Amino acid sequence: MIFFDIDDTLLDDRHAQDEAALGLRREFSHLLPYAPEEFPALWDAVSVRHYRSFTTGDISFVEQRRRRIHEVFRAPDLPDADADARFARYLAHHEENWTLFPDALPCLHALGGRRLGIISNGDPAQQRRKLSATGIARFFPTVVVSGDIGIPKPQAEIFLHACRLAGVRPEECLYIGDNLVFDAQGSRAAGMRGVWLNRRGAPSAGVAQPIITTLADLPACCR
Q1: pTM for the complete prediction?
Q2: What is the tens place of the pLDDT at every residue in 206-221?
Q3: Which of 32, 150, 151, 155 is least buried, going by the fewest C-beta atoms within 10 A?
Q4: With 0-12 CB in 10 A as exposed, 13-18 as middle and 19+ as buried, what is 117?
């Protein structure tokens, strides 16, 4: 069985995130005094830092969203309702920009006949909407999102839970994702065969194989 990550594996989340950050800045330009060319990178850095605190169990998924808003707006005392409302505007812009990578759909068709599933971090409703909105939900009868069980990648239990749900053993599964630690190493620690999708050419010296740079190469890894 082959399990996939979603963001920056099937769906170009970096593009969606950058466009959503710019949309948020336009809406709140009177409160976000950043140049357009600098804000997407700033938003990304803030997001990575607070999301990491969520994955280590230090804060909740909702709290990491609020902290992102608090930091970029420089408003640590902003009420939760206001922070949630501003983040909702970011999410609206994000959803407008959901697109698959060009290699995603051809890869899924090339894997016809193979059992496929999803293991993803994030909000369950949002992650499932991504699959539906991009037209690929039909490929994945098994979908596990961290919010379903309260355990995010790279913890082994989320991978093992997906295996139990699908009725397969970890050693019978391959997992593909763009994040070396959360995806490739996390799935390997759970007993799966983890494949790192290194789309952006990150340094890979000394990293255990297999590594691919495009989903076009995934079918060959499954033989």
Answers
A1: 0.91
A2: 888 899 999 999 998 8
A3: 150
A4: buried
